[in-house]
UniProtKB/TrEMBL annotation:
Keywords: Chaperone, Cytoplasm, Nickel insertion. This is Urease accessory protein UreD. The gene is ureD. InterPro entries: UreD. It comes from Lachnoanaerobaculum orale. PANTHER family: UREASE ACCESSORY PROTEIN D.
Length: 277
């Protein structure tokens, strides 16, 4: 493993009989992987942990997840990704790489990024999904943290996500936020809101009726903000949310995820944290 990284996690799963089992759990540096966490439907769940509680200027982290044929697993970060100040202008990096093989299903819940004042952060997430594979992938970005409570005092955040399905590019998203150069209240940016979250679902069985049904489910919820659900050109759909608090955003996000899990996949309701609602 490349020693230039300050933290590395490498985790893999395979299907044995009627169960998915962990086959590799490697970690180094400031990265940790939790013990197995029970779920109602016995899907293996693990938390990815940064021991420092956040990322320090110039640090680099590398997370790898591999699901072999027919496996189903859940991964999530333990807390939001706090990006500490970068007073020397050095960028903090995180690279996430995912391989989902034939008919496997990975749920990868990456928490939102909370950049501190003067933070500079680049995150790249790459997923390679083979025929029949499925993926739920989340991420998000907030107005950040500063001692004065003034929002958007970080320098720059780049969140890049690229997903291949059966060797075809199906999702290529690059969110660049630079409060030094842009008015974050403008149309097309945060528009007066402070919290952004997204959920991408890749499933070759996708049909537009799923969007109609998920909208009907979400429209019954109390929410102060805006959100939209759109189809990808192929094999999936995406939810994007702008709101005034992480709590409210997560409520809509998890209603959407659990609609898919319960109504489409026939799985049980999933709650990862007490503060989801």
């Amino acid at each position: 493993m490349n020693r230039s990284y300050d933290g590395v996690s490498d985790i893999a799963f395979e299907k044995r009989g009627d169960r998915t089992v962990l086959t590799n759990r490697y970690r180094s540096g400031n990265s940790r992987i939790s013990a197995l966490i029970p779920t109602e439907d016995d899907t293996p769940l693990y938390f990815l942990v940064a021991t420092g509680g956040g990322f320090i200027e110039g640090e680099k982290y590398y997370n790898i997840a591999t699901l072999e044929k027919d496996a189903h697993a859940i991964l999530t970060t333990q807390t939001p990704n706090y990006i500490y100040k970068c007073p020397n202008g050095k960028t903090t990096y995180q690279l996430n790489e995912v391989m989902v093989k034939e008919n496997a299903f990975l749920e990868y819940y990456i928490d939102e990024v909370i950049p501190y004042e003067d933070a500079i952060y680049y995150q790249k997430t790459f997923a390679d999904i083979k025929k029949g594979g499925s993926l739920i992938l989340t991420d998000g970005l907030t107005a950040g943290w500063s001692k004065s409570d003034t929002p958007f005092l970080y320098n720059k955040v780049d969140l890049k996500t690229k997903i291949l399905y059966d060797n075809e590019l199906v999702f290529n998203d690059y969110l660049i936020v630079d409060p030094r150069e842009e008015d974050m209240g403008e149309l097309g940016l945060f528009e007066g809101y402070t919290n952004f979250n997204s959920v991408v679902i890749i499933d070759e069985n996708f049909c537009t009726d799923w969007i109609k049904r998920s909208k009907e489910a979400l429209n019954t919820k109390d929410f102060e903000g805006i959100y939209g659900i759109t189809a990808l050109e192929k094999y999936g759909f995406v939810l994007r949310i702008l709101g005034r608090s992480s709590h409210n955003n997560l409520g809509i996000m998890w209603d959407f995820i659990n609609f898919y899990r319960e109504e489409i996949r026939g799985l049980k309701h999933l709650e990862l944290r007490k503060n989801q609602r």
